[in-house]
Amino acid sequence: MKAVDVRAMTLDQLDDEVLKLKKEQFNLRFQRATGQLENTSRVRTIRKDIARMKTIAAQKRAAEGAAAKK
User: Fold this and answer.
1) Given a cut of 90, is residue 55 above it in pLDDT?
2) Which of 35, 39, 54, 57 is the most exposed place for a label (fewest CB within 10 A)?
3) Domain 3-69 top-level CATH class
């Protein structure tokens, strides 16, 4: 998912999407362990998407905190 698309999401949507991706990551780990994983590049993509979403969510929370202090 592109950063532009992620930035358009609300914090609740970001949290839900991160949870969904973590579940998918969990399933991919099991598939790799049992030798059933076909698309190995998906593991890397999921990991990067999770990091991207967490980073943008942290930036949004920091911006909200700064706006609330003003």
Assistant:
1) yes
2) 35
3) mainly alpha
Angle at 1 between CA 67 and CA 65, to 5 degrees: 10
Over range 23-38, report the average pLDDT: 96
> How many C-beta atoms surround the C-beta of residue 47 within 10 A?
13
**Which helix (H) or strand (E) segment is 33 a member of?**
helix 11-34
User: Do 11 and 61 form a contact (C-beta atoms < 8 A)?
Assistant: yes
Integer Cα distance of 58 and 61 in angstroms: 5
The C-alpha atoms of residue 41 and residue 60 are separated, in whole angstroms, by 29
Mean pLDDT within 1-20: 94
